[in-house]
Write a structure and sequence with these properties.
- The chain is globular.
- Strands 1, 2, 3, 4, 5, 6, 7, 8, 9 and 10 form a 10-stranded mixed β-sheet that branches. A 5-stranded mixed β-sheet has the order 11-12-15-13-14. It has a two-stranded parallel ribbon with strand order 16-17.
- By secondary structure, it is α+β, with helices and mostly antiparallel strands.
- It contains 9 helices and 17 strands.
Length: 416
């Protein structure tokens, strides 16, 4: 229940409406508990891109002690129309089930967020959020108004009367009274892992994120970048490929293929066949082709049956050729990492004294070499098997691999 004194105070500030969100303020906090303050801030940047912004500007205001006490995030998106306000803020969740930022997968990168998520995460780092949004309302008319939400009262928002304006469309969110110790270096590193892949997806467009006027520099996160073209001979379909290997894993984006049409619009994305293999091989592949102008990504049928689509589909020869070529290319790029990983595994097993004792055996050196070769082979087949093993588990696994014969090892690799 809202106190009368608080409501009267908002009326004095020119606020004309006050609406309640479906669950309590404590329920909202509980539902958003998996967001840390860095991910919470990132949600407001995603909201801008969800609104078709091409530029997001972040301003960090510092106090006399050089601490950040106010954050302003401004975008040039289409704003929040007053008639859409209730739909953007009110339908949050009818329960307190936790929202996990790592489990919101989509088949494209458009509309990253969901209504009600990003707009309320500010309670992790600020005591108040104020939106000023400007949107087009009919021919050449633009309206602007403000939305206020207090961190202690997340289940209610307060809206000012809209006014006509000549300002450019977009939304600016001001976060007052920053309650988290804000380390700028950590923030920039986080933004690089959060948005590096997305900015590369739109590298041929004027997309930018600026912090205090400076573009986000994520170049140090790019370990390797290669751009090339090839064509499917039979159909003369051309593909422009940009491959990036990242020094570190992206925050909530796995290694993926991004399919882009001739107008530079992303049509689909999917994990690569080497995604999340446990070998720290983080990569993104961007594929631009006219083939994707009219393409049916929804069909998984590869049987050759007739598909009632206007364009190509997954079963087309050109698309299968593309996947085969990319699979070979990425596999070749991955090999150095598998060798590096298997070297590290052998070293860890030796340090843990996990290998059997071969002393007294005239063939000891050969047996040790055979065991190491078998471990390397298994490591290449399934790196995750060797991840996070304790010393005892390493010893058991090494002895098991040593005990089984070549035929059993081949069966084990096939099973993995």
């Amino acid at each position: 229940m809202i106190r009368v004194g608080v409501q009267a105070d908002y009326m004095k500030k020119g606020l004309i409406a006050m609406n309640n969100i479906k669950i309590s303020s404590k329920g909202i906090e509980k539902a958003l508990r998996k967001f840390d303050y860095l991910q919470a801030i990132a949600e407001y940047i995603w909201n801008g891109f969800d609104a078709e912004a091409t530029a997001v500007d972040i301003t960090l205001h510092k106090n006399i002690l050089d601490g950040v006490d106010q954050i302003i995030i401004a975008d040039n998106g289409y704003g929040i129309k007053l008639k859409d306000l209730e739909g953007k803020f009110t339908p949050f969740y009818e329960s307190e089930k936790a929202v996990d930022p790592d489990k919101r997968g989509r088949t494209t990168s458009a509309m990253h967020g969901k209504n009600g998520i990003g707009r309320l995460t500010f309670h992790h780092f600020a005591s108040e959020a104020i939106w000023q949004t400007t949107y087009e309302d009919g021919l050449l008319l633009k309206n602007t108004y403000k939305i206020h939400i207090q961190a202690k009262q997340l289940d209610a928002y307060h809206v000012t009367k809209p006014d006509l304006t000549d300002k450019d469309r977009g939304t600016t969110v001001t976060f007052n009274n920053i309650i988290k110790e804000f380390v700028v270096e950590d923030f920039l590193a986080f933004l690089s892992r959060e948005f590096g892949w997305f900015l590369e997806l739109h590298a041929d467009k004027p997309y930018t994120i600026r912090i205090d006027g400076e573009p986000l520099d994520y170049a140090s996160l790019i370990a390797e970048k290669e751009t090339f073209t090839f064509a499917h001979t039979m159909s003369q379909t051309k593909f422009r490929i940009t491959y990036i290997r990242w020094e570190d894993r992206m925050n909530h984006e796995y290694s993926k293929l991004y399919f882009i049409d001739s107008k530079l619009k992303e049509q689909h994305k999917q994990p690569t066949t080497f995604n999340n293999k446990g070998d720290s091989f983080y990569h993104s592949v961007y594929i631009q082709s006219k083939l994707f102008d009219q393409f049916d990504f929804s069909s998984e049928d590869l049987s050759g049956q007739q598909s009632f689509t206007f364009g190509a589909s997954r079963k087309s020869d050109a698309f299968q050729y593309l996947l085969d070529e990319l699979g070979t290319f990425i596999s070749e790029k991955r090999q150095p990492y598998l060798r590096k990983l298997s070297d590290a595994v052998i070293k860890e097993f030796a340090e843990a004294k996990a290998f059997p004792a071969f002393t007294g055996d005239p063939e000891a050196a050969n047996r040790r070499d055979e065991l190491e070769a078998a471990i390397r082979e298994l490591c290449h087949a399934e790196p995750k098997v060797f991840a996070r093993l304790n010393p005892e588990q390493k010893k058991v696994l090494a002895h098991l691999i040593h005990a089984v014969g070549e035929e059993e090892r081949q069966w084990l690799m096939a099973a993995l």
